[in-house]
Amino acid sequence: MTTEERNDHDVIVIGAGFAGLYQLIRVRQAGYEVRVLEAGADVGGTWYWNRYPGARCDVESIEYSYSFDRALEQEWNWTERYASQPEILDYIRHVAERYDLRRDITFETCVEAMRWDNVSERWTVRTDDGRSRTARFVIAATGCLSVPSRPDFAGMADFAGELYWTSNWPHDGVDLAGKRVAVVGTGSSGLQTITAIAPVVGSLTVFQRTPSYAVPAHNGPISSRLDEVKPGYAEFREESRLSRLGFHCGEDATGYYAETPADGVRRELERRWSDGGLCFTLSFRDVLFDAEANEALAEYVRERIREKVHDPVTAEKLTPRSYPIGAKRMCVDTGYFEVYNRDNVSLVDLGEEPIERFTERGIVAGDAEREFDVIILATGFDAMTGALTAMDVRGTDGTLAEKWAAGPRTYLGLMTAGFPNLFMITGPQSPSVLSNMMTSIEYHVDWITRALDHLRTRGSRRMEPVVAAEDNWVNTTNDVGDLTLMPRAASWYMGANIPGKQRVFMPFVGGVGTYKQIGDGVAVAGYHGFELT
Ligand code: N01
């Protein structure tokens, strides 16, 4: 019987993105029978769905790739410093083929509900095709940014033109040439879309609620850097695992803003700016802790925006002032601000002209109705908890959505009490979205696989966090978050982008290396804080 025909499994993995695929490889290697359930028609997760123009990773290719197989990392050649979505999807497909993964994956199948049975000590997993499967263990590789947030603007259904979400872009592409296009949303997806389509469309109107801080990518060919890194890739990866963000940012040489003279501050900001990328926020150790240090960085970025945007009124609208830099996810751009110097691009500041409604012809904001052929919505995701609570997950004492109504509660972002044998890869209260996802994914997958091995070796069937350990971890995560400026922004890290969602700071901000030491310590101590029976 193939694993597709079976209804009872050792392990069910939900999701066939980077996390689910690596988990499949590892549980297979460990000798478990496993089925992966995936909503999409192929592998890729976020990179399968988010195919909008200009989609690109803003963690460098040499870091944003698997490290588990030396042969794989030696044989794959990235072409650019920051890989484009098509190239990343090619890589994921290559991995799926190289390790013959598709035979254990059921595609176009969405998990609707999961119920724990205390007697059989198994999960029953129901999918949207009406089928139920059981498994001893379920591993949710459901992604941190996989459930789109779809604001319900008044009159949306009346719009007679084309309407697209960046998070579910048509696979055959969209012809935007010469058309009147609107983009709503100016986070990473919006910025990349706007930059890519501005030269192609007839006219582009950007609806901005909050301006973003963006650092230049300085993207370009990567070949010489790859040649440098490849001979010492193992050491390079280990350094990433022990770093703060899960990728190299030269943090050992980083000083404190408070101890750096003004000319030194300027030199460092200029150096970081010309290097490009997300490491800009690590210019000084205290940027996320000290309001003055933070403001120095923010002001530097504001100056750059004023330099790039010719019209001072537009420049001011594009200038972020209402939140600390880094407290919302930084964007990495390639000519975004310069787009507003084009004659065919205009900006609507929703603070001055709020969207009133969509109409048959376009969007009414402020007093004006603007007409469009195409509206593109880049309005973000129900981050970190959305994919988990969207499923009707019933544990020993109720549902996950009920348990997390006042914010997620996990132990290490790996498990949550009352839901035995349910693991989360990059769950809330782990570094996840504050890190290179590849580093964090691999760490969690390896940790979970070792835990399964441990259970098997000692003859245990069930693993669950002890409530006190979970409470302690939730408090630790909150306390570390509260030491920083991050809770001061209405960000998706806080759940603030979803109406009615409890505002709590969800990721662990203590750093990837620190988190690894804690996670390793828990495992070495016999899974301290977990009950194994
Ligand atoms: O989503 P976002 P995203 N009316 O939530 C606006 C990763 N990512 O898809 O800021 C009007 O950041 C919203 O406004 P505001 C990365 O981690 C990575 O762009 O809430 N506007 C905001 O401007 C990223 O952070 C890459 O006031 C509304 C925008 O929509 C994360 O995914 C590329 C609105 C949403 O921005 C999410 O990025 C893409 C409303 N009702 C994504 N609702 C790379 O690696 C929301 N907005 C490059």
TrEMBL record:
Record carries keyword Oxidoreductase: yes
A Pfam family of this chain: Pyr_redox_3
GO molecular function, one term: oxidoreductase activity, acting on paired donors, with incorporation or reduction of molecular oxygen, NAD(P)H as one donor, and incorporation of one atom of oxygen
Cofactor needs: FAD
UniProt xrefs under InterPro entries: FAD-binding_Monooxygenases (IPR050775), FAD/NAD-bd_sf (IPR036188)
UniProt keywords, alphabetically: FAD, Flavoprotein, Monooxygenase, NADP, Oxidoreductase
Family: Belongs to the FAD-binding monooxygenase family.
Designated name of the protein: Cation diffusion facilitator CzcD-associated flavoprotein CzcO
Upper lineage: Bacteria, Bacillati, Actinomycetota, Actinomycetes, Pseudonocardiales
